[in-house]
Design goal:
Helix content: 10-25%
Number of strands: 15
CATH class of the largest domain: Alpha Beta
Largest sheet: 7 strands, mixed
Shape: globular
Radius of gyration: 21 Å
Structural class: alpha+beta
CATH superfamily of the largest domain: Endonuclease/exonuclease/phosphatase
Strand content: 25-35%
Distance between the termini: 85 Å
CATH topology of the largest domain: Deoxyribonuclease I, Chain A
Strand order of the largest sheet: 1-6-7-8-9-13-10
CATH architecture of the largest domain: 4-Layer Sandwich
């Protein structure tokens, strides 16, 4: 018994030391990305946006190439933590690219594009898309980088460098990365960096489109952080609108954008902390949420189990906000059956008069 107690004490002591060492590593490697960082696009000398002509935008959270329709994720109550293989990642991002090409998208705005990450099997997705769409202006904005997360223990999600990317058939000028408010409490390591890019795009009528691209906080931070992020974004866009610019904002808002999609799309209208109604009343004067023609199609699914049409929890958390001086021609949720991601893309046709 004495020997057993000594062994148990040794094991327990080693576990405590390991835990403290890991905690020291996590907090020691903790850092945040700076605000107001210039992001230079890979410029191909393309033409300015045309006035009076239809231009097609898309926003699509690609789920770092891991979330096929038969995938479930541990943080949503599912089973898996990382992509099944590098081949699976490449197959999913190929599906994303082919879908957007089929739709004839001029400006593709993608979220959760990994440059490195165990969760995405270290596939450089930015480099893959940049090669695929090598004739377009291309812009990558780092959204967050995380230390090695040793959870779940049997197949840890690891570390990641992830961002948002824009691929455009029209010229993009130098973009600015704005750092969003994030948690400063001890649990701050769970609240990943978040930012949005502001990209000026000249229009050939002498005016400028300011393109806002974002992926807001989901799991971390709490309601106060979410409110602060939205407040900062709204104030920024209001300044551009007041100057008479075109303003378009797109991405994954991690809010119920129309405010009622959770109830409309789900017989069991469960509410999730990350899927609160979007505060549309905070939109600046002269800006609106662009409602789709097919609101019965959700843009995001819960990853608690493989996707089952009509049974899986879905919501509309992706879409576009547009200033009133942009003519909206059409907006659609593409029902891709969540084949390549836990999100469906949103397609927007506009005209700059």
């Amino acid at each position: 018994m004495h020997t057993f107690l000594k062994v148990a004490a040794s094991i327990g002591g080693a576990a405590v030391v390991s835990f403290l060492g890991y905690a020291a590593y996590i907090y020691g490697s903790y850092s945040r990305i700076e605000d107001n960082v210039s992001i230079f696009p890979k410029n191909r000398g393309l033409h300015e946006l045309p006035a009076g002509v239809s231009v097609r935008f898309a926003t699509f959270n690609i789920g770092y190439g891991a979330y096929s329709s038969d995938y479930s994720f541990f943080m949503d109550g599912g089973k898996e933590s990382v992509a099944r293989s590098s081949e699976a990642v490449r197959a999913n991002i190929l599906g994303v690219a082919e879908l957007l090409d089929k739709e004839g998208v001029d400006i593709a705005m993608l979220q959760e594009v990994d440059r490195r990450g165990r969760r995405s099997r270290d596939v450089d997705e930015w480099a893959w898309f940049e090669s695929r769409w090598g004739d377009r202006d291309a812009l990558f904005m780092p959204n967050y980088h995380s230390s090695f997360l040793f959870w779940p223990p049997l197949d840890p999600i690891g570390s990641a460098e992830s961002g948002i990317a824009i691929f455009s058939r029209y010229r993009m000028d130098v973009s600015v990365r704005r750092q969003l408010p994030i948690s400063t409490k001890p649990n701050k390591i769970l609240d990943l960096d978040r930012g949005y890019s502001v990209t000026p795009m000249p229009v050939d009528n002498g005016r400028t489109l300011y393109l806002y691209h974002l992926h807001l906080t989901a799991y971390g931070g709490g309601p106060d952080i979410s409110a602060a992020q939205i407040g900062m974004l709204m104030s920024d866009m209001a300044e551009k609108i007041a100057l008479g610019h075109y303003v378009l904002c797109a991405g994954d808002f991690n809010h119920d954008l129309p405010g009622d999609s959770v109830k409309r799309l789900n017989a069991d209208a469960r509410m999730f902390g990350w899927c609160r109604p979007f505060p549309g009343e905070r939109l600046p004067k002269g800006m609106r949420y662009v409602k789709p023609e097919n609101p019965q199609v959700g843009t995001s699914r819960l990853l608690d189990a493989p996707y089952m049409p009509g049974k899986s929890f879905t919501a509309t958390i992706d879409g576009f906000l547009a200033s009133d001086n942009i003519r909206i021609l059409r907006v659609r949720h593409i029902d891709a059956g969540f084949e390549y991601s836990d999100h469906n893309p949103v397609i927007l046709d506009v005209r700059f008069d």
